[in-house]
Design goal:
Number of strands: 19
Largest sheet: 7 strands, mixed
Structural class: alpha/beta
Strand content: 25-35%
Helix content: 10-25%
Strand order of the largest sheet: 7-8-9-10-11-18-19
Distance between the termini: 34 Å
Shape: globular
């Protein structure tokens, strides 16, 4: 019996009688982060890092029973040692280390190696078996240093502002938008769509600092007039192509996503610009992280599973596929 196995409810540790990111109602859930494909309502109790408690309650409700523990602090669940380690994906994201009878498994959830002001940096964890996500598990996905992307964003905003156009960037509402906001040097007013603004208190409660921003409201004529003259608005991808965008006049639009690497998704996004900015690990990051764990077996989930399993087999690495009900937050990454 493996220490962690795939079941109809999700990844299950039978020795400790708990699940990791379960997608059905269970008694005890350890959650890697608050994105909807990892954090599901219905568990009797949840375990997350302390700085992830606010986001989990925002997503699942204040009435959930949740325990937050510091990173790297081990606890025992039915005789199994469990600790949570920074994953660098979004605020409160973690890798789950599980130890039982001298065997150590680590479940990555989602993670990235790039700098992010809004969460703690990812830390590889030594283990015997490492279960990695593979959302961008192909060699074509290699990220530029993030500070170069933010420089591109600022040049784009400046150019639009000189033409008295409002700039709108579409990005995932939890994580991506806050990461961009934290890096913006105000050239003009900064506005947030309501879906993004509602998450800010959880970030600020965790100590994350942002430049001045305001929640945008198309019924506020004075605000609309100011933003039409070169403001910057962050909005979720679901707002793209809706009448809401037209309220801001002659706008320039952009999408921030790892999928902007390839032509098809960039064309389908129907935006003026695409910024390759991902909160997931790229190909190089996967390879470096796998090596850093020292793992003897690699489990692959969430993404290009079969391709990556085949790649590792060809390299003589013991790798296996782990099914999931979800394929990551790929659509809006």
């Amino acid at each position: 019996m493996p220490l962690i196995e795939h079941t109809a409810n999700g990844l299950f540790c039978q020795a400790g009688d708990f699940y990791i990111d379960p997608w059905r109602s269970v008694d005890r859930a350890v959650v890697t982060h608050a994105h909807s494909d990892h954090a599901r309502r219905g568990a009797h109790s949840y375990l997350v890092p302390i700085d992830g408690v606010g986001l989990l309650k925002h997503r699942l409700g204040d009435d959930i029973k949740v325990t937050g523990i510091p990173y790297r602090t081990g606890i025992e669940i039915n005789g199994v040692k469990v600790s949570l380690h920074p994953a660098g994906h979004v605020l409160g994201s973690c890798m789950v280390r599980v130890e039982h009878r001298d065997e150590v498994w680590v479940v990555s959830g989602d993670y990235k190696a790039q700098h992010d002001k809004t969460c703690q940096p990812m830390e590889p964890v030594l283990c015997h078996v490492f279960i990695t996500e593979s959302t961008f598990g192909l060699p074509i996905y290699r990220w530029k240093p993030s500070h170069l992307i933010f420089e591109d964003i600022h040049r784009w905003w400046q150019s639009n502002r000189e033409e008295n156009r409002c700039s709108i960037i579409f990005g995932y509402s939890l994580g991506k938008s806050q990461r961009i906001l934290a890096e913006l040097q105000p050239l003009g007013p900064i506005g947030l769509h309501g879906a993004i603004a509602s998450l800010i208190p959880a970030y600020e409660a965790a100590g994350v600092k942002f430049p001045a921003w305001e929640k945008v409201d198309t019924s506020n004529k004075e605000q609309v007039s100011r933003f039409k003259k070169g403001g910057m608005i962050l909005a979720p991808p679901s707002a793209n192509g809706t009448p809401w965008v037209g309220k801001w006049g002659d706008v320039a639009t952009a999408s921030a996503s790892g999928w902007m690497t390839i032509r098809g998704p960039k064309r389908r996004a129907n935006v003026d610009a695409g910024f390759v900015l991902s909160d997931h690990v790229d190909w190089t990051g996967i390879m470096e992280t796998v090596q850093a764990t020292g793992a003897q077996r690699i489990g692959i989930t969430h993404g290009y599973v079969n391709t990556l399993v085949k790649y590792f087999h060809e390299k003589g690495v013991d790798a296996f596929a782990l099914e999931t009900r979800f394929q990551g937050d790929a659509a809006e990454e």
